[in-house]
Amino acid sequence: MSEYNKTILTNAGIDLARRANKGAATFQLTRGVSSTENLSEKTIEELQNLTQLPSVQQSVILSDVAGTTDNPDTVIGIRMTFDNQNLKTGYNVHTVGVYAKEPGKDEILYGVATAKTPEYIPDFGEQMLFKFDFLMYLVIGRADKVTVEVSPDDVYRKRDTYNKTEIDAKVSDAVSKLNDKDAEILKNLNDYKQENKTYHQNLEQQLDTKADKSAVNQQLETKADKSTTYTKDEVDNRILPKADKSYVDGELSKKADKATTYTKDEVNSKIAGQIKSVNGHRADSNGEVTLPKLKAKTLIAYDVSNKKPTYDETAGFDGNGNFSRWPVDQWVVSQLAEAINAKLPIEEGPANADLLMNAGNKIVYWHGNGDAVKNLPPMNNKNYFFAVKLFDTNWGSVTVIDQDGGYWINTANGNVWTGWRSVVTNEHLKKLKFVKQSLDQSGNIFQDTKFVTQEADGTFKINIFDSDWTANKVAWLLKNTSSYDIGANTNLNDIKAPGLYHCSGASNIANVPAGEDSWFNMVVNSDNWNGSQALYATNHNQLYIRTWNSTAFTAWRRVINDSDYNNLLPLSGGNMAKGSWITWNGSGANESKDGNIGGLQWNGATDNIKIFGDNNASDNLDLAIQLGDDNSNHISIRDKDGTERAAITADGQFTGRVDWNNINKKPNIATKDDLKVNVVRGFNVAEKENTGATVENLNNPQLVDQQALLPFADDINSIKGQGSYRHTEAVDLNTFTGRSNQVSTYILTNMNNKNYPVSAVNPKLNDPRGTLIVFNFDNNAKTQLWIPVGVSGLELGFAWRYWEGNNPPAWKIYYDTIYALSSSNNALRADVTDLQQRVDYSNPKANYTGTTVNINDLKSTGIYRFSNCTIQNGPYKNANSHWIYLKTTAFDANTIYQTIYEGDNMYGRKCANGSWGQWRRYLTEAI
Hints:
The protein is α+β, with helices and mostly antiparallel strands. It starts with a strand and ends in a 6-residue tail after the last strand.
């Protein structure tokens, strides 16, 4: 499967795009080229310095504009198609380039794309057409400053005479393959771009509203200055009273000089009585002779069956010498007679006839009595039908036209009949139904049912382009789930393109959330104006989000997770952690008097108790305990049994006792400030030991024993892949099954590790180093996810496996899965190409023009097109040039059929065991 790097603009292309973006330039993308020059090892700077692409093999026009980008104002997709038509030598497409041109300037190399794995275009030696479609995305500055020379898309025309059973089988097989491929594409397709029809239409509409500046200037140069010229009306008004000299001279030349001519009256007077007669018809007193009208008895119709003629005896010449009828030459009548004599006789067939019996060449019909005829085809209505019977020595054919408009044909070679075959017509094709599982515009699955429709040019089409959004949805999904690495010195404010981003400890990363390091994953979703970033801090297992608009970014906000929820007090009650606080904030001003700013309240038995903070004076906040609504309740102090030992009543009285001696005298014991304790203020998680201790007052810290931190350290190490989870020695991946009921991460850095994934497609991509993540469900069910490093990490992707028990299975490798999918797609493409060459007259198996061809050699199934060719071993007596289609059908290893279509004529023959039979011409007369 071929694969290409992203497009690199040349320095000239970058300059042109910048000027177009500022509105200072317009240009046209003119053509695409393919090259055998391998530039994949060149640096970006070296590619940008290119001015011409060396070793160019083919130059093609841009066959489409694919508006599939999210930024159509600045980025467009163009498609170019390279085929092997008349290609004498195959080649590898190592580099593809596109050229551009500004008005009045030379063409420049605009951008290039180099191959990771080049596509191979074979030669045309075997007459097999191969097409390589290449989709390139280009930054063009501003779309309204760019035009693209495009050609119309190919139009596929499908016509054939397969029978209904063959067509049903082929359509069913194609639908099955397409459905299977749809499922695979939705799951695994990694790099596919779809044209955006709406963008292309909008682009054309925008371009239609713009005028070419150079063309406008040329038109202005053809215009005259009104201040120095007359308008057409002004000129007409000035010359209208004037006579044209040539017209006057011409009119005068038609006049005779009166002095040297006679008038008509003078001539008539002189010749009156001078002419005696013309052919016996005498002149009148004025000398005029009236001649009789010439007539002819003319045959105007003939009843052939009754041999009865019809004549017009009044036909004759008018005064201008024109005959009133159209005479017919005897030679034409002779031709009509020959045509009538060659016509097949038509007769009514008997009820008990044998349809395949040789009874001479004729047309036979059965009018309601045909159901008893022997050897009928399997048609529905057997009472009414026509049969055209053509026989010769040892061969013949019978064609039946039934009452439902169906055609059936049976041919004989010797005494062997081929059997009845139904001829597929346009009406049969219109009944074909195509059913496919599709996605609508909202992404919902539905059953898409389409029927064959006939176009204005006679071709047939099944249109699912306007209803099926599968490719559009897959293209969007793949585009917005691409993964990118974040390198050192990156500012996260600069990452606005949609996609998945990963940072693996790169240095100097700006604008990360406060307190987080540079180990994180980030998801970006955006359009031209605003967007969002979601950052997953892998070391701290925290999620942060922020957004931006055209003005600025918002601050990072941490999303609360299960740990946060576990620390919240539920409405049903619960325990709060030691040292927890509930804070109510009033006004910050010193002189504020907010009163009750928040607290606790208990309601019951039509009474209540309140404890709240009371801001009742400037710089003063009291803790208030407010008892009930009728001063009947009090603050009760009780022992473990619930017995009240003391109370503070609503009027402020205390009912308990006071140890006044202890209040008046200092107890002879150490105070809280005298008690000291060693406090651990740092801890090395990887080494599981403290990094220093301090001596502090007992009432200052909350004490935690060092042993209590060890499980925390072990859990952190299992997530970060450090400490005992980072291995520099050689290890066996089969032995790393993790901790039961947990997810464990291992970083393995040794080149001699064992049982790591090895690609069956490209073993060179494998690397024994990488990150191993183990999901241990219950110490029995386990899943390993392997993410390699180096070139393997870049190209191979990831691998995974799942097992239960103690025997790990083989790895499943993402790269191999995608490769297998590509192979399946190529196989399907080959099948579709082969099917087209069998049924598509616009895409024949071979084209021949202006040459001599021996069609005995054309034995492979398919359609062949001949233009101005001399045909050897054809149905022709003379070596003249012909424009024909030849259809060859290899029935089996020993039997081949050939049919020639030439205008209204059709010929056929059969090859049996290597010996070609005689050509037969099929009936072409309309019935």
